[in-house]
Amino acid sequence: MKGKYKAALALLLLLILVPLTLLMTLGLWVPTLAGIWLPVALVSPWKKVRA
What we know:
It contains three helices and no strands. The protein has one domain (2-50). It is rod-shaped, with a radius of gyration of 19 Å. It is mainly α. It has helices at residues 2-24, 26-37, 40-50. It comes from Salmonella diarizonae. This is DctA Dicarboxylate transport.
């Protein structure tokens, strides 16, 4: 029974901490994804605004 308790606690922490971590690092990975997905014509002005 103790093993199930630990597994449930680990799953709960995982479900809370992973989205929280992604939200906290939003400013780091969103511009990278935008740089990959946006056309080159849009990426250049974006970089000028951020600089």
